[in-house]
Amino acid sequence: MSLAHVILGLLQQQEQTGYDLKTECFDQCIAHLWPADQAQIYRTLDKLESQGWIDCTVEIQRDRPNRKIYRVTTAGAAELTRWLQTHQPLPIAREPLLVQLYFAAQLPDEAILQLLRAELAAHQAKLSTCNQIEAPPLHDSTASREQMLRRLALELLCRREQTYLDWLTEAIALFSNTA
């Protein structure tokens, strides 16, 4: 998956500035799915514009910098549709904790426990953040199609975090018994 397709999807929903994409979309709406910093967003907007997938208009402002408002072009909408219909390869997860554990035999159990507890706290915080995102329940018949699809994505995130928490709890129990 690429940041370009995420931005195309967001711009298809609503015309926006690069700043709005960062603050209203990436920071508030989809940070749990795909993080991006301001520099990445602006580089990608430039790339999308050069490919003809988006265009922009400049809104002149007094006493403030001018605003560039981006929108998806017909070619960009076609590319987004093509991408939405294409199966994506399974991602290769880069899990620093798993690599650390792979080589951690040289550490005392207490050091491993400290690592596991820190990871547990981080995943608890992430699950808490995901649980605070408002979305109708999966089987809510009044939910729109868009709400239902967003809920499905959020549901997988929550389940993945809960699975990670269960695994970490087991690992902590294992090393607590040997410490």
Q: What attributes characterize this protein structure?
A:
179 residues, mainly alpha, elongated, single chain, 7 helices, 2 domains, Arc Repressor Mutant, subunit A, two-stranded antiparallel ribbon, 61% helix
In short:
The chain has helices at residues 3-13, 18-26, 38-50, 74-84, 96-103, 109-131, 145-178; strands spanning 54-59, 67-72. The protein contains seven helices and two strands.
Describe the SSE topology:
Elements: H1 3-13, H2 18-26, H3 38-50, E1 54-59, E2 67-72, H4 74-84, H5 96-103, H6 109-131, H7 145-178
Antiparallel strand pairs: 1-2
Helix pairs in contact: 1-3, 1-4, 2-3, 6-7
Structure description:
The chain is mainly alpha-helical. It has two domains: 3-84, Winged helix-like DNA-binding domain superfamily/Winged helix DNA-binding domain (Arc Repressor Mutant, subunit A, Orthogonal Bundle); 96-178. It contains seven helices and two strands. It has helices spanning 3-13, 18-26, 38-50, 74-84, 96-103, 109-131, 145-178, and strands at residues 54-59, 67-72. It has a two-stranded antiparallel sheet with strand order 1-2. A hairpin with a 7-residue loop joins β1 (54-59) and β2. α6 runs antiparallel to α7 (145-178). The longest helix is centred in the C-terminal third of the chain and has 34 residues, at 145-178.
